[in-house]
Amino acid sequence: MPALPAEPRRPRIALTAGEPAGVGPELVAQVLAEDFRADLVVIASRQLLIERALAAGTLPGSDGNAACGFECVDIALSAPSLAGKLDARNARYVLACLDRAAEGAHSGEFDAIVTAPVHKGIINDAGIPFSGHTEWLAERAGCDVVMLLTSDNLRVALATTHLALSAVPSAITRARLATTMRILDHDLRMRFGLDEPRIAVLGLNPHAGEGGYLGREEIETIIPALEQLRGEGLHLIGPLPADTAFVPRQLETFDAVLAMYHDQGLPVLKHAGFGHAVNVTLGLPYVRTSVDHGTALDIAGRGIADAGSLRSAIRLAVQLARRRNA
After folding, report:
1. What is the pLDDT of residue 58?
2. What does pTM read for this prediction?
3. 105: Cβ contacts below 8 Å, ≥ 6 apart
4. Are residues 208 and 321 both part of a single domain?
5. When you count CB atoms within 10 A of the terminal residue's CB, does the N or C end of the chain come out lower?
6. Residue 314 CA to chain centroid, in angstroms?
7. Rounded to the nearest 10 degrees, what angle do helices 133-141 and 91-107 cross at?
8. What residue numbers bound the domain in which 262 lies?
């Protein structure tokens, strides 16, 4: 009798709880008892998670004991934390959790990282330059990355991430666009299983520059970069006007959209899928996903925060980790 095929190994997923004053700790507590066909390892203050979840009524089980045995890399807070009250002293705690997750992913201890939201402002207030998870992880991995948000069949990647709008035009260079499009094409193939991804590239200016009358970035930068990458075999469409690229009939012909800046592409995606969209960092040597929302300080600790996006981020991380391991 032939032997039965072995069950695939359960991925180990590092789950960071993010800003301790935000909704992250209680959202993490909500999902601990759920079966994602993976082993979740929380990287946070264990005591904080239990206290915040009890206060919000989100621990599974009538007495809260069911979640007290969750697997946790216990990292101590730098200072006591109150829901909704930021404290710059805990900035280093937040980054220590993130660094520990990245170290484990680099070493193979974890198959993927899923991150709850952090508060960029309070980390900078603590004297630590920080523009976001994506940039922090890229610097530590020593590689170029691309931010991609996905919801259902809509995928939106960014040529630039957390920049002031005034800094965007000078940040969009042929070299940067070429790197971004190569990473996007590669990871759509290798991580999402698309044989020949069709990537729509947006223009920077209204109407994609209107032939140069509304700006010359398309003519001088974006079009030459597209022509170069098409010569390498990438399937690129554009540059397209951003105001019509997201029309449903158009979207049916794309596998992903590359926006030039943060608020050009993400409002459309979040309108379509807020609460279950997922942020994915492409280009890292490991899988990293995150929620599509912020720390929600105004509702932290009240037990009304929705863990839908965190669930989606964990499910996608498991899916991508399984494909990577295979």
Report:
1. 62
2. 0.90
3. 14, 111, 112, 113, 284, 285, 286, 287, 288
4. no
5. N
6. 11
7. 50
8. 144-283
